[in-house]
Amino acid sequence: MEYITSHIITMRWQDVVDIILVGYILLRFYVLFRGTAVFRGIVGLALLWIFQRIPQSLGLVVTSWAVQGIITVAAFIIIVVYRNELRSVLQARNFKNILWGGVHRSEKTPVEIIAGCAFELSGKRPGALIVFPGTNDLEDVVQGGIPWEGLVTREMIASIFWRDNPVHDGAAIIQGDRITKVGVILPLSRREDLPSRYGTRHRAAAGLCEATDALAVVVSEERKSVVVVKDSELHEVKGVFELEQLLRDHLGETAKPIKRRVNEKIQIGIAALVAILFVTGIWFSFTKGLDTLIALEIPVEYMNRDPEMEIVDASVNNVGLQVGGSGALIKSIRPEQVQVKLDLSKAVAGANTYTITQDDVTLPPGAFLKMVDPKTVKVTLDVLTQKELWVQVDWVGELPRYLVMESVQVKPQKVLVIGAKQILSGISTAYTQNVSLENIFESGSLTIGLALNHPSLKVAPDSKDEIELSFVIKERDGWNWVE
Q: Looking at the whole model, is its pTM more than 0.70?
């Protein structure tokens, strides 16, 4: 869980875009190829890829290589075997259909297929006669017929009523999404009030509907019309949508298209979620497999310190970090890109203990913190104060033996120093930088700086931080040059 959390925290915006783009590509594959053999092949390839990652993570090099080869061959076979289905999807009228639009080739209901075919067949010989049974049994009314049990498709209906087909003169009975019988003989109506323009098919449809609660669709090649017959009424249909509505009313499918669209949206939503989760899992798998560690020694920066206080002591000035990430990223990391900053805004006078966390460490995008050593830092702060210190020259070495320093004048003799109260309480003298006596041979003057014995101490703005040193040198009395 800690590993996953650390990866989520260190995710770059590029990683998020990467996951969304690949997830959307998988979703488009689902929308374009669902319900086809191609989609099943793609799912199979995905499962093979997951299986290939398992031996790879276990270090089984030969097994991983073999499965990778199988995946390559399987992808080639899918492209060759299902090239027609792939071409039918990729040959979209415009690029938008591939990127955004849906594919409806397998989404049409039998009602939609039949309504479309009816108007396609109108005007083509020899027409068509299609029967949709109701609740009444038709066996005692109709005669003959050949059991068919074929799925309702545009090609199937066109082939049944093709003029060279022996069963084209009879009726086709459709129940649900199946064509149950073809070449069926229907009883003719004996009504004398039917218009003379209606032929045998119309009379056969009327005869069946007078005796049962079936609905019949008559396609006339002579008048290029589609007539719906139910009960004792013959109604000429003007368009596909009207015919669809009449068929749905008869079959009780009025609400199904809406339900189907809702179900389709739910399925696509679930598919989108699965795609994002799948790609996220792949991202975690890749980042884990490509993790590389690097050890860095980084100085600690203390931020937001109260200006009225000074850092007296810190347990460490540098911490060791173990940083992980992809090999390419780790190789490109420079030490100045990594920072450790501790917030002292809530520190109090005295000892303060801090635990270094992920929030205190700044890393390049994509890198994550693996370990910190030491994890805790103790920082001691004290209130700033001012103290006047005597200036003392820090002489080093010795004058030549024949010389003696007669007098020394230091200006200023005192300096005002600012620092932590605890430090200044034990200091009474401010020393200058080293002055070497071995290089002095005559009287003169020097300007030298102060060398305060703690890095947190500094000279007050109103006080000079440079000391003017004047000295008088003379020969030692009674010096015997012969000696």
A: no
Weakest mean pLDDT among 32-46, 131-145, 166-180, 293-307: 32-46
Q: Is the pLDDT of residue 425 over 50?
A: yes
State whether 328 and 233 are in the same domain. Answer: no
Domain count, the chain: 4
- 154 half-sphere exposure, CB direction, 13 A CA radius: 12
How far apart CA 201 and CA 168 sit, in angstroms, is 12
**Looking at the structure, do residues 123 and 248 belong to the same domain, yes or no?**
yes
**Does residue 16 surpass a pLDDT of 70?**
yes
3-state helix, strand, coil in the chain (%, to 5): 35, 30, 30
Q: How far apart are CA 363 and CA 323, in angstroms?
A: 8
Residues 247, 301, single domain; the answer is: no
pLDDT tens-digit profile of 261-290? 556 678 778 888 888 887 887 766 665 544
Paired strand residues for 128: 219
In a domain, 93, yes or no: yes
Q: How far is CA 274 from the centre of its chain?
A: 13
Residues 213 and 124 in one domain: yes
Are 452 and 430 a contacting pair, CB within 8 Å?
Answer: yes
Bigger pLDDT: 138 vs 103 = 138
User: Are the beta carbons of 46 and 78 closer than 8 angstroms?
Assistant: no
Q: Are residues 214 and 121 in the same domain?
A: yes
482 inside domain: no
* Burial classification of residue 118, based on how many CB atoms lie within 10 Å of its CB (0-12 exposed, 13-18 middle, 19 or more buried): buried
Which residues make beta-bridge pairs with 474?
A: 404
The answer to whether residues 78 and 94 belong to one domain is yes
pLDDT of 89 over the 70 cut: no
- In which domain, by residue range, is 457 found? 384-475
Q: The domain that contains 167 carries what CATH number?
A: 3.40.1700.10
Going along 143-244, which residue ranges are E strands?
A: 143-151, 171-175, 178-185, 215-220, 225-230, 233-237
pLDDT digits (tens, 9 = 90+) for 189-244: 888 888 888 888 888 999 999 889 999 999 987 778 899 999 888 999 988 888 88
Residues 114 and 247 in one domain: yes
Segments of 203-348 assigned E as strands = 215-220, 225-230, 233-237, 291-303, 309-314, 318-326, 339-343
Cis status, amide bond into 364, omega within 30 of 0: no
- How far is residue 415's CA from residue 310's CA, in Å, rounded to a whole number? 19
**Within a domain: residue 411?**
yes
Tell whether 481 is covered by a domain.
Answer: no
325 conformational bin, left if phi > 0, alpha if psi -120 to 50, beta if neither: left
- Give the Cα separation of 63 and 65 in Å (integer): 5
| CA 158/CA 139 separation, integer angstroms | 25
In the prediction, which pLDDT does 464 show?
A: 81
Residues 142, 221, single domain; the answer is yes
